[in-house]
Specification:
- By secondary structure, the protein is of the alpha+beta class.
- It contains 15 helices and 16 strands.
- A hairpin with a 2-residue loop joins strand 1 and strand 2.
- Helix 2 packs antiparallel against helix 14.
- It is elongated.
- The chain starts with 5 loop residues before the first helix and ends with a helix.
- 25% of the residues are buried.
């Protein structure tokens, strides 16, 4: 069975990635998304688990995994991400090959160097319609990006009243306009001159990195000293100088010149060369291989220090992420002192006066069920709860703000002048589930004797 050409394999991979990206925001586990970074709700949802803003310590691990994954892929397979998975490339394929090419016949897939011939009837009209179609798709893509920050169930409600949600509308509009300009005007120039990845990828290559390589030994030398092109009649090799590999290149380079930053490993040049060489009954001159193998230095070493090191680091980050996700707190508590340092009540206990401190307790219930909470002062025992005197309910995946008053009727300081700051240890817990508890420290300010009238 004849193998599919690389460009068809790319189309399949890109279709899967595009479908997955569109569907993923709608998939929910335990009523939570696979991935959602919600600034509106100040929450991270990951694989069906919701994390509060205070648990955003997971984000560095996600970012580290992303960077390590891309660097590992580059070390192993060159800029394969750029040619096969990058949204920029997928969008250009949709616009250039599908809309301009297959739909309106403005371009030929085999010749990406030729500009659109506007002298043909309806070319300008077709181009305008093509841009309008992509503009509509750009708004879909921009909305899809937004769904990872504003969940679809909220997005479609918010978008019905755009005046009430200008930031959301602005995000979608800016992203869509950028995609329209980027895909219809910038094109592959974005990959070559703007994307920072292209500037670091060359440092990740070694002799065993797999990338698109022209077989100079078989094909012959096309470019001599200083990059000057050799006369095609002087080429001593199988390359016939048809330049099919050059015409089809979306990055507008000649792969026969060697490794270039603009190459995105799309392997379209390999498909073109395979077709030409196949007609002559000869093997392909352009292959996805390593420098070691192409120069006769032996088989590509897939297991080497770099690839093993990246694999170990990736596994380590995943393990750390899994362990930290597994220890997720189902109750979070922030304690903030009110602006009033303390209040000296007229109520007396013996010869002493009552001192009251006010606090704001922000209780977050990060579990999937409602809980009834209360708290107790563990130390010092002289500090007691004035209010609230009854437990309070916090709904699932929500927060509640409680005004708390702690007091003491006992003499906690012998100082004649200056306030005394006393550490108070507090245990907050769920009455309906004793396993749910957190421990926090707060500061209880106590006045000097001079203010107590002692």
């Amino acid at each position: 069975m004849k193998s599919l050409p690389f460009y068809k394999k790319r189309y399949i991979v890109m279709a899967i990635i595009a479908a997955f990206s569109l569907i993923l925001p709608f998939i929910r586990i335990n009523d939570h998304h696979i991935f959602l970074l919600s600034f509106d709700h100040k929450r991270l949802e990951l694989v069906g688990i919701a994390f509060d803003m205070q648990e955003f310590y997971l984000m560095p691990f996600l970012v580290m995994f992303l960077f390590l994954f891309i660097l590992a892929i580059t070390t192993f397979g060159g800029r394969v991400w750029c040619g096969w998975g990058c949204p920029q490339t997928i969008f250009r394929i949709i616009y250039r090959d599908l809309i301009e090419g297959a739909l309106f016949k403005l371009r030929r897939r085999a010749n990406k160097q030729k500009s659109i011939d506007y002298s043909k009837p309806l070319s300008r009209v077709s181009k305008t319609i093509a841009v309008l179609i992509w503009s509509a798709l750009a708004f879909v893509a921009a909305s899809n990006l937004t769904w990872y920050f504003v969940p679809p169930e909220d997005f479609f409600v918010y978008i019905q009243s755009p005046a009430d949600h200008p930031i959301l509308v602005g995000m979608v509009l800016i992203a869509a306009l950028f995609l329209i300009y980027d895909v219809t005007k910038l094109g592959e120039s974005f990959c070559a001159y703007i994307c920072p990845y292209v500037r670091v990828q060359s440092s990740m290559y070694d002799r065993d990195t797999i990338y698109t390589i022209y077989d100079e030994k078989r094909g012959g030398t096309i470019y001599g000293e200083g990059g000057a092109k050799v006369d095609k009649h002087a080429i001593n090799g199988d390359c016939i100088g048809c330049e099919a590999c050059v015409l089809i290149c979306p990055s507008h380079i000649d792969i026969r010149k060697g490794l270039q930053l603009e190459c995105i490993n799309c392997l379209e040049c390999s498909d073109a060369c395979a077709t030409v060489m196949g007609k002559a009954g000869k093997p392909n001159l352009i292959n996805w291989t390593s420098a070691r193998e192409s120069t006769g230095g032996g088989k590509t070493r897939f297991l080497r220090f770099r690839t093993v090191a990246y694999a170990v680091l990736l596994v380590g980050v995943l393990v750390a992420l899994a362990l930290m996700s597994g220890t997720k707190e189902t109750m979070l508590l922030n304690i903030n002192k009110s602006n009033r340092v303390y209040k000296i009540d007229e109520v007396r206990e013996g010869t002493n006066r009552r001192v009251i401190n006010d606090y704001i307790f922000l209780v977050s219930n990060t579990s999937a069920v409602d809980h009834t909470y209360y708290f107790e002062v563990l130390d010092p025992v002289a500090v007691k709860i004035k209010s609230p005197l009854s437990p309070f309910v916090v709904s699932a995946d929500s927060k509640d703000k409680e005004i708390v008053e702690l007091y003491s009727d006992e003499l906690l300081s012998d100082r004649a002048d200056g306030d005394t700051l006393i550490k108070v240890h507090i245990r907050a817990y769920a009455i309906d589930d004793p396993s749910v508890e957190v421990f926090r420290e707060a500061i209880f300010a106590y006045p000097p004797k001079s203010k107590l009238g002692l």
